[in-house]
Amino acid sequence: MRIFLLTALTMLAFAANSVLNKFGVTDGGMEPLDFAMLRLWSGALMLLLLIWLRRKPTTSQTPETGSLIGTASLLVYVLGFSLAYATLEAGVGALILFGVVQLTMFMAAALTREHIPALQYVGCGVAFAGLVALLWPVGAEAPDLWGAILMAAAGVGWGVYTLVGRGAASPLLRTERNFRYAALFMGVVAIGIGLPVGAPLGLMCAVASGALTSALGYALWYRVLPQLRTTIAATAQLTVPVIALGGGALFLGEELTLRFALSSLLVLGGVGLALRKAR
Predict the structure, then answer these.
(1) How far apart are CA 257 and CA 259, in angstroms?
(2) Which UniProt keywords are listed (predicted)?
């Protein structure tokens, strides 16, 4: 039950990132790159504060290979995520992102010869079918190609970041290192494009996304990951678009429909099938 609750809390944080990012780059008056920059800086500061409060000495301060890969994948995810939402609708972006995340993690499980029970395949298929039914814009034009490529890259980045996190001996320290190096990289970028600007509410969304739903959420995710199978972690993340759409309806005035309710049952039911088999 404890792992379930922690995983659910992490999924809520991930969904909140989508709502905050979408609001920040639309109503918040921020450029996508500015939002990503401030998100990484505030996340890095929050994690540095947590490390300082713990005051636990570490045996090594040199970056591990896993940490370098984690930093690179974090940058790919955050930048692709923010830039893609400049042209994509929220639902289409979420479908591309978590579809690619799922594909990346299941491919990794297959390559490492992890045993995948048949019911997990069925559960994942049902959940993904629910996402397609919920998010695919029937009768609308195809999504922007460049935005779709950026969001697909973000999905690969998040999938790799998740996989790397499974081997973290110290989840909080590894997350802090990833954010620290990513924030330093964005500091170099800021020299060329200037500091982030936007409406006060947009700036607040970026800070909240970085310090709370990213820094704390990712640290918790790294802590939970070693106790989850790769396929379970991939399937659980399919709930995030459903939660994000619920948050959009609650905080952004987006419409809740019967299609949303039925598709949510498919997604959550599929996740339940996969988790039930794992137990």
Answers:
(1) 5
(2) Membrane, Transmembrane, Transmembrane helix
* Structure-token match 């040199």, residue found: 62
Strand, helix or coil at 137? coil
Give tens-digit pLDDT for 249-258.
Answer: 788 777 777 7
Q: Within the chain, how many helices (H) and strands (E) appear?
A: 12, 0
Alpha-carbon distances of 172 from 44, 46, 53, 70, 223, rounded to whole Å: 11, 11, 12, 13, 8
124-140, pLDDT tens digit by residue? 788 788 877 776 766 55
CA 6, CA 88: separation in Å to the nearest integer? Answer: 30
Distance CA 190, CA 212 (A): 22
The answer to whether 166 and 226 have CB atoms below 8 angstroms apart is: yes
Q: What are phi and psi of 89, to 5 degrees?
A: -75, 155
Answer yes or no: pTM beyond 0.85: no
Please name the residues in contact with 225: beta carbons below 8 A apart, sequence gap of 6 or more. Answer: 162, 165, 166, 168, 171, 233
145-165 helix and 65-84 helix, angle to the nearest 10 degrees: 150
The rounded distance, in Å, linking the Cα atoms of 192 and 38 is: 15
Q: Please say whether the beta carbons of 106 and 124 come within 8 A.
A: yes
